[in-house]
Amino acid sequence: MSEATVLVVQHEDMCPPALVGRWLVDAGCTVEVCRPYAGDELPDPASYDGFVVLGGSMGANDDDDHAWLGPVKERIRAAATAEVPTLGICLGHQLAAVALGGTVEVNPRGQQLGLLEVGWGAEAQDDPLVGPLATARRGVHWNNDVVTRLPEGGVALARAGGAVQAARHASSVWGVQLHPEADLEVVRPWAASDEGSHRARGIDQDALLRDIDVARAELDEAWRPLARSFAALARDRARSSVPSTDR
User: Fold this and answer.
1) Mean pLDDT, to the nearest integer, of 172-194?
2) Cα dihedral angle (8, 14, 19, 21), rounded to 10 degrees?
3) Domain segments of the chain: what residues?
4) C-beta of residue 236 within 8 angstroms of C-beta of residue 6
5) Percent of the chain whose predicted confidence (pLDDT) is above 90
6) Choosing from 11, 34, 141, 181, which is the catalytic residue?
7) What is the tens place of the pLDDT at every residue in 39-56?
8) Partner of 186 for a Cys bridge, out of 40, 68, 81, 182, CB 3.0 to 4.6 A?
9) Rounded to whole angstroms, how far apart are CA atoms 219 and 189?
């Protein structure tokens, strides 16, 4: 029997759990992927030991165009209330911010792309999730929107280009703007969907993709610990939820 069960919400085919899903399994978790865009019903995250919300090409405020986004925000609020360890990745990070009272907008500095250094702040050092990772490392970025205001009580843990790169939105809810789950196979369709706009802006996609591929071992070493750290929080919840017995 696995030590913890983790619910993962996926928003579209080209944004799978990929490496993060594999790393969670390697860390002893059972991972259940929910695809609400394909008609899956969203479970109650309180019945799980961990909750992960993935990225997607839609915006965090596009509820009218993507009917499941509102319910996902409700599930994030429910997870926060139940203190279920929750991790949002890119769009998931933005959804967590909006769900809990923050603000997400188009990045005035333009799209963040490729490998960027993580700008850890002092608050990251003792954070329960990212504390073990708060050393120099790079991450894959591919986003137009950013969190411009954190929820009340939220803590920025890292910044890149002036934007929130990692945050603790609530005591058990974290978000990362970067993509720890992404390898070349995952990123290549994103590049294809942005090919026209990137060509018009003179962005060398081949160089971006080559850099991500060459850095694979570095990125694995940098972000596998995030999955391990999250799995440890999920295991802690699993242990604490086991009914005690009289002896």
Assistant:
1) 97
2) 20
3) 4-183+220-240
4) no
5) 95
6) 181
7) 999 999 999 999 999 999
8) 182
9) 19
44, 79, 140, 159, 160 from 178: Cα distances, Å: 26, 22, 6, 11, 10
Question: For residues 231 and 51, what is the distance between their CA atoms, to the nearest angstrom?
Answer: 10
Helix (H, G, I), strand (E, B) or coil at 221: helix
Q: Which of 132, 216, 130, 209 is nearest to 177 (CA)?
A: 130
Helices (H) and strands (E) in the chain, counts: 7, 11
Q: Which of 93, 141, 169, 179 is catalytic?
A: 179
Q: How many CB atoms lie within 10 A of CB 74?
A: 12
Residue count (the chain): 247
Choosing from 11, 15, 90, 141, the catalytic residue is 90
- Global model pTM greater than 0.85: yes
Q: What superfamily does domain 4-183+220-240 belong to in CATH?
A: Class I glutamine amidotransferase (GATase) domain (3.40.50.880)
Please say if 41 is a catalytic residue: no
Q: Around 79, how many Cα atoms within 13 Å sit in the side-chain half-sphere?
A: 36
| Residue 90 annotated in active site | yes
Place of tokens 């570095």: 218
Decide if 123 is catalytic: no
- Between 246 and 107, residue with greater pLDDT: 107
Give the Cα separation of 234 and 238 in Å (integer). Answer: 6
- Cα(42)–Cα(51) distance, rounded to whole angstroms? 12
Which amino acid does the sequence have at 188? Answer: R
Token digits for 198?
A: 């990137």
In which residue are the tokens 């080209």 written? 14
